[in-house]
Design a protein that fits this description.
about 550 residues; Rossmann fold; 3 domains; six-stranded mixed β-sheet; about 15% strand; Elongation Factor Tu (Ef-tu), domain 3; 15 helices; 18 strands; single chain; alpha/beta
């Protein structure tokens, strides 16, 4: 049905308070195994699942420290939330592998009411990893500080220490250290002297010493978990850092409207114009599912491509988009080739959108669109005074070397995508153009010098403590960043700075990082619905017909 004519009286404008409001991030539960039907209700998986109790072999013996009952006060009233301490018999005993602590230094406090056991070999490995400036070394030092704070007021470690001693009120269990030798006979002979085998021996000994409790190994190492399962020892992955269980559930920033959209939402449509943009206020059942800054489209008799600007119950305000597929709206000579690219350019060119994330496979145009919009807003409209490009070098956080050269010269081998896209944008001279006397070559070299003066290539190693003012910051290969590293980068933004994160979560090279725990997945989920951020997942490859066919056939 056709849209109603514009009313003679101006409609209510989009509430400024709504556009300036910051959406509150959803609270994520701690990843402890939940009992009963409440298990796995949230998107974050539990660190361990209930394992079937197993009878210890009659021939096996174990010597283990006795884990005593907690104090007679079985119920502790917390100031913020009322939670109870479970009796020891109902608590699970999680044995943490070293890689869990190195992966997340706060993992000690993520098991709610359950207990944690640290073998002596884990402390030994932490000591070996504490030196250096890498993220692993920082986590090792932070874990050591946590452990020192927990045991500072304790003289006897054989009774364990409470995990909430440092103010972590969610952790209601106890922390136990290995204070004596643990001996057990494993069903399979394993080589001595290897750290993983020593930890498996501890798990088996604890299982025999506490047959009424669930003893579970938590490790990020797949082979370690496989060996544990082969020995009939329950083992689980540490999943607290997982934002989503399934990457297919990740927010893509686009919602196709059903065929009957105008039938159910076409009544009492209010429309007005402001700043060259047409706004529609629609009412219907689907409006409650909209997310602020999400793109919606309808390909029926009355086609529509719009962006959600406001959601209020069963009512929503939609704003029409600028058509960047038309040549007159080109961005540094680049036009959108598909619907998602048009959506992405509307986010990249919007001064009110401070944070943009673009996901997509190779060849979808992520870097090209980001660079074209950055050059336009830096050199033409003067909205930003500089373009800063960085990317996660793999391994992340390692030194870029002490060879001769500046920071930018050392980062250039990692920045091949920048050179390729500058060539596509016809901004750089080719390798054969050495500054000849021809006017065209001279113009190319002059333009290249101007572009180089406004583009800075930086390393992630030197981002701590910096503040960027009026900068256009592009973070390439963001899928290789951890959530903590992503937080460090995004919080560098000062007034007038725009941050664009690019990546493909199907190409993660960082150890122990998955699609669900990547920093790129983390920011896409946490920034969803904030009025000053936007996200688009690019679907179609536009590099070449050869590249498109290769991505499908190979």
């Amino acid at each position: 049905m056709p849209l109603p004519k514009l009313p003679t009286r101006m409609g209510t404008m989009v509430s400024a308070s709504t556009s300036d409001a910051v959406a509150e991030a959803p609270k994520v539960e701690s990843p402890v195994t939940r009992s009963g039907s409440a298990a796995r209700k949230t998107a974050v998986k539990s660190a361990a699942k209930p394992a079937a109790k197993r009878q210890a072999p009659a021939r096996a013996t174990a010597i283990a420290p006795v884990i005593p009952e907690p104090p007679t006060l079985s119920v502790v009233a917390l100031k913020t939330e009322k939670k109870t301490r479970l009796p020891v018999s109902k608590r699970k005993l999680f044995v943490l592998d070293t890689n869990v602590l190195l992966h997340d230094s706060n993992s000690l406090f993520k098991f709610e009411e359950h207990d944690i056991f640290l073998p002596m070999m884990v402390l030994e490995e932490l000591d070996h990893q504490k030196k250096g400036m890498s993220e692993v070394a920082r986590n090792a030092r932070q874990v050591s500080r946590f452990l020192d704070g927990l045991v500072s007021d304790t003289t006897k470690l054989d009774k364990g220490v409470q995990l909430d001693a440092l103010g972590n009120q969610e952790a209601l269990g106890n922390l136990h250290f290995q204070t004596s030798a643990l001996h057990s006979q494993l069903p399979i002979e394993l080589p001595l002297g290897k750290a993983d085998n020593a930890i498996l021996n501890v798990v088996h000994a604890l299982q025999l010493a506490h047959p009424k409790r669930e003893v579970i190994l938590v490790s990020k190492d797949i082979n370690m978990r496989l060996k544990a399962l082969s020995l009939s020892l329950p083992a689980e992955d540490y999943l607290n850092d997982h934002v989503l269980d399934d990457s297919d559930l990740l927010y893509d920033g686009v919602m196709p409207l059903p065929e009957n959209f105008w039938v159910k939402h076409g009544k009492d449509v209010e429309s007005w114009q402001q700043g060259g943009t047409t706004f529609y206020r629609v009412t219907g059942p689907l409006c409650s599912e909209f997310i602020v800054n999400e793109f919606v489209y309808f390909d029926g008799d009355l086609p529509l491509q719009a962006q959600v600007k406001e959601v209020n119950g069963r009512s929503a305000v939609l704003a029409t988009l600028r058509d960047y597929s038309h040549g007159k709206n080109n961005v540094w000579g680049i036009t959108a080739r598909n619907r998602e690219q048009n959506f992405a350019l509307n986010l990249l060119m919007n001064p009110e959108c401070d944070f943009v994330s673009l996901l997509g496979q190779a060849g979808t145009g992520k870097t090209l669109l980001a660079l074209a919009s950055a050059l336009t807003q830096t050199l033409e409209t003067k909205r930003y005074n500089e373009i800063i490009i960085t990317r996660a070098t793999v391994p992340v956080g390692d030194d870029i070397g002490f060879l001769p050269g500046t920071e930018e010269e050392k980062m250039l081998p990692w920045m091949g995508a920048l050179e390729d896209n500058l060539e596509v944008l016809h901004l750089g001279a080719s390798s054969n153009d050495m500054g000849g006397i021809g006017g065209q070559d001279w113009s190319k070299n002059s333009t290249m010098e101007l572009i180089r003066s406004r583009i800075k290539v930086k390393s992630l190693n030197f981002m701590r403590g910096r503040t960027f003012l009026n900068k256009f910051l592009i973070i390439d290969e963001a899928q290789n960043l951890t959530p903590k590293q992503m937080k460090t980068l995004v919080t560098r933004a000062g007034p007038g700075t725009k941050i664009v994160c690019l990546g493909n979560i199907a190409q993660i090279d960082t150890p122990y990082l998955t699609e669900g725990s990547s920093g790129l997945t983390y920011v896409v989920d946490r920034f969803k619905g904030w009025p000053h951020s936007g996200h688009i997942t690019l679907q179609r490859g536009e590099r070449s017909r050869l590249a498109d066919y290769a991505s499908e056939a190979l």
